[in-house]
From TrEMBL:
Residues 45-316 form the Aminoacyl-transfer RNA synthetases class-II family profile domain. This is Phenylalanine--tRNA ligase, mitochondrial. It comes from Leucosporidium creatinivorum. Coiled coil: none annotated. Is responsible for the charging of tRNA(Phe) with phenylalanine in mitochondrial translation.
Length: 412
């Protein structure tokens, strides 16, 4: 018996063998935390938007995009792992939940937009822990222009930004200037052009980081802010970079970026333009700036969370007493093709936001039968209330029933 088509926000999507977006995931569509007044993600969005006053600020593009938008238009090869059903959520073979805000670059370039900031929810199948959630928010920034006057303006801005950075308390480490063999400039660009664009990208993001993180340091603290640039690879940019910020002794990766490949601009019908793009993860940054210890808190409806923040300032989250956690172990023989992300998905779908973590705690292969046994520890905790043991047992039973049914595993 065929399943009914998927309904999302009043629209209907035919199902096929690709459909793997679950009701729990689809229920997040339209929540728009980045637009919720006084929500940390919205406060952060406004801060960054203020850093780019001339850019178009776009905040309401639908998360349902075509596979072409999300992957093909950006030059992802057909066998790229990001396309797999274990990594991404599909409505059907043609339509999916965007995995990144870059999915909109080509359509916006096509529409003639040259400078934009686009904030939106993105969806990825992933492990479950305090800093991973299958829905999160990204901000895409792009700046393309024409040769001549356009590039001259970038050069002038480079000069201004460099002066600001020179007089600021910031140390920028950038070994990527020497890695041209593995991270090449494009043959369509002269060395001079590539340098102006890369420098503009780096200066722009270094000043943004200074603005966001510079104020974090405590009064009288002479320690400079530390930023480092790392070589990266993205199918639609070259050279490509990642940016990390030193925070409490750890390097925190906050964004990916690069010089947009001419290929992507040709596909956008603007072959004469050139420029850069970046994509930053809002939760990552907000967790640090607002001292939020668990990514699920952003989804909390508890006023003890929501009432703590307001648009005028960035204030650290004051933890209120957390409700107790409860864990249950689950051991089973895996079936052929078992994938941890599929398991996490089932858990997430059954337990919703009540699951805090799923951790592999034991595993072995039976020497005779070659079967693999795994044991997972499932951590349950609500952000908003106390869970009773009965309730957790009931959820756990339902998890077991569903993994047996859907994944063909055998509970031990
Ligand atoms: N979309 C990339 C990601 O999600 C980030 C990125 C954006 C990289 C724009 C390059 C240019 O990791």
């Amino acid at each position: 018996q065929p399943s009914p088509p998927l309904q999302v926000q009043g629209k209907t999507y035919a199902r096929d063998t690709y459909s793997n977006a679950t009701p729990t995931i689809l229920s997040k569509v339209g929540k728009n935390l980045h637009l919720k007044p006084n929500h940390p993600l919205s406060i952060l969005r406004s801060r960054i938007e203020a850093h780019f006053p001339q850019f178009q600020h776009l905040n309401s593009l639908s998360p349902i995009v075509t596979v072409k938008q999300n992957f093909d238009d950006l030059g992802f090869p057909p066998d790229h792992p990001g396309r797999s059903l274990t990594d991404s959520y599909y409505l059907n073979k043609q339509e999916m939940l965007r995995t990144h805000t870059s999915a909109h670059e080509v359509e916006l370039f096509k529409a003639g937009v040259e400078q934009f900031l686009l904030t939106a929810d993105v969806y990825r199948r992933d492990e479950i822990d305090r800093s991973h959630y299958p829905v999160f928010h990204q901000m895409e920034g792009a700046n393309v222009t024409t040769r001549g006057e356009g590039l001259a303006r970038l050069e002038k801005e480079n000069e201004e930004m460099r002066q600001r950075l020179d007089s600021a308390n910031i140390i920028i480490t950038d070994p990527t200037r020497e890695t041209t063999a593995t991270n090449p400039i494009q043959e369509e660009h002269s060395e001079e052009e590539a340098r102006i664009i890369s420098d503009h990208l780096k200066n722009t993001l270094n000043t943004l980081v200074l603005r966001l993180f510079g104020g974090l340091r405590k009064e009288g603290d002479q320690e400079p802010l530390q930023v480092r640039w790392i070589e990266a690879t993205f199918p639609w940019t070259s050279p490509s970079y990642e940016v990390e910020v030193l925070y409490e002794g750890k390097w925190l990766e906050i964004l990916g970026c690069g010089v947009v490949k001419q290929d992507a601009l040709n596909r956008s019908d603007v072959p004469q333009k050139l420029g850069w793009a970046f994509g930053l993860g809002l939760e990552r940054i907000a967790m640090v700036l607002f001292s939020v210890p668990d990514i699920r808190l952003f989804w909390s409806e508890d006023t003890r969370f929501l009432s703590q923040f307001n648009e005028d300032s960035i204030t650290p989250f004051k933890p209120y007493s957390r409700h107790p956690e409860c864990y249950k172990d689950l051991a089973f023989w895996t079936a052929e093709g078992f994938h941890e992300n599929d398991f996490c998905e089932v858990v997430r779908d059954v337990a919703g936001d009540l699951v805090e973590g799923v951790q592999l705690i034991d595993e072995f292969v039976h020497p005779k039968t070659n079967r693999r046994s795994v044991c997972y520890r499932l951590n349950y905790r609500s952000m908003d209330r106390s869970l009773s043991n009965d309730e957790v047992n009931e959820i756990q039973a339902k998890v077991i029933e569903t993994v047996v049914e859907q994944m063909g595993v055998e509970v031990r």
